[in-house]
């Protein structure tokens, strides 16, 4: 791809599915921040490693659609703690809600399982996630609204879309991943279909996804 392949969204950036509900995410769904959105980090933003499990989160040059597959350890779970060493080129991290659209994430906000985050990096880099070792962890739940929702994948190993979305089996229509390395969307996976674009295809840890649902629902994490 050329250097300037980062999608530039229009005002209405939510992908609009066709009548037959097969999603066709527009190229311009990646958030483009305003000029004066350079985040001001707090003084103590360096994550403090603790004994326990870690997981690498790969970031590529440009926009990355990422997620946290499991609850992070206390003190290493905020946007500032996780992404403090990432050169974002002055761009904030974005979340997305059907009601509010793309919204900047506060640097002291806790990164949540099942949430999809847009993170910009000026270069390829790796972020180390410090996973919580607390044995008492309630499974995460995310409320979904009709239409497109930005979700995260909630396990440390790959599983099929059917398995990952089993809690909303009756309402999900399609799920779309983003290839950060190529700065482009992957083909949509369709519920109750098989083959290369069917529900049997796998979702991956640390990736974010667009999920289209027909009605309100509650997506439950598949691991704690």
Note down, in words, how this protein is organized.
Strands 8, 10, 11, 12 and 14 form a 5-stranded antiparallel beta sheet that branches. The chain has a two-stranded antiparallel sheet with strand order 1-6. Strands 2-5 form a two-stranded antiparallel ribbon. A hairpin with a 3-residue loop joins strand 3 and strand 4. It starts with 53 loop residues before the first strand and ends with a strand. It contains 2 helices and 15 strands. The chain has helices at 79-83, 161-164; strands at residues 54-59, 62-66, 94-97, 101-104, 117-121, 125-130, 141-144, 147-152, 159-160, 172-179, 184-185, 189-190, 202-203, 208-213, 217-220.
Q: What's the SSE blueprint?
A:
Layout: E1 54-59, E2 62-66, H1 79-83, E3 94-97, E4 101-104, E5 117-121, E6 125-130, E7 141-144, E8 147-152, E9 159-160, H2 161-164, E10 172-179, E11 184-185, E12 189-190, E13 202-203, E14 208-213, E15 217-220
Antiparallel strand pairs: 1-6, 2-5, 3-4, 7-15, 8-14, 9-13, 10-11, 10-12, 10-14
Summarize this structure briefly.
The chain is mainly beta and 224 residues long. It has helices spanning 79-83, 161-164; strands spanning 54-59, 62-66, 94-97, 101-104, 117-121, 125-130, 141-144, 147-152, 159-160, 172-179, 184-185, 189-190, 202-203, 208-213, 217-220.
List keywords for this structure.
five-stranded antiparallel sheet; mainly beta; globular; 224 residues; disordered N terminus
């Amino acid at each position: 791809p050329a250097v300037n392949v980062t999608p530039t969204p229009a005002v209405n950036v939510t992908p609009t599915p066709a009548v037959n509900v097969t999603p066709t995410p527009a190229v311009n769904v990646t958030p483009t921040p305003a000029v004066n959105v350079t985040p001001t980090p707090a003084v103590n933003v360096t994550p403090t490693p603790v004994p326990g499990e870690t997981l690498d989160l790969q970031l590529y040059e440009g926009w990355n659609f990422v997620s946290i597959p499991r609850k992070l350890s206390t003190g290493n779970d905020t946007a500032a703690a996780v992404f403090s060493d990432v050169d974002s080129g002055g761009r904030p991290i974005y979340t997305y809600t059907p009601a509010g659209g793309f919204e900047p994430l506060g640097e002291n906000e806790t990164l949540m399982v099942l949430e999809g985050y847009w993170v910009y990096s000026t270069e390829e880099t790796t972020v180390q996630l410090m996973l919580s070792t607390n044995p008492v962890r309630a499974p995460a739940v995310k409320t979904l609204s009709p239409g497109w929702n930005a979700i995260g994948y909630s396990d440390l190993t790959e599983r099929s879309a059917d398995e990952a979305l089993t809690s909303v089996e009756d309402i999900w229509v399609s799920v779309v991943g983003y290839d950060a390395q190529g700065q482009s969307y992957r083909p949509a996976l369709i519920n109750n279909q098989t083959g290369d674009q069917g529900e049997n295809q796998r979702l991956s840890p640390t990736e974010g996804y667009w999920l289209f649902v027909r009605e309100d629902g509650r997506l439950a994490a598949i691991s704690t």
